[in-house]
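New to this. Explain these tokens.
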Amino acid sequence: MSQHEQSSFADGASARDLAIGAHLVTKRPGYMHHGIYIGSGRVIHYAGLSSHIGRGPVEVVSIEQFSAKSGVQVVSHPHARYTGFEVARRAVSRLGEQNYRLLTNNCEHLCLWCVVGQAKSDQIDACIRNPARAVQVIFTLLVSKLLRDWILTSFARTFEVRVSALNG
């Protein structure tokens, strides 16, 4: 988070403790993923890099799917322009959008637009200020994707072999 923003994180937030319009983050390999809580255990986020390398839409997912077993933290915005239901309404207004751009329109841009009215990303700004950090993030993302793809491919092959043996 920006040094100028008085943000704080509350560890271990559960759906029953979350206010509608809460700005949530969860750890991913190399970055923090952002979303807006809209109630009933649901989160709006820009799918983008959260589940694969590529462009995912703004979508609604369960808080469990959003957190990806990494826990959820709430970002505090003491000088928020919008709060509560207005933040959630702004997030809902972007549902289905498919204009994901890592550098200019990612999950953090979406959430800060919903809360403070300005699309920005402190994570991207930090990478621009520190190119070594950018290289580290890109490396982590690529290794994570390659490892995930290898695991899925290995699982599929193992499953095919076992099914073939049962049918054979």
User: Anything to note?
Assistant: Confidence is low (pLDDT under 50) at residues 1-11.
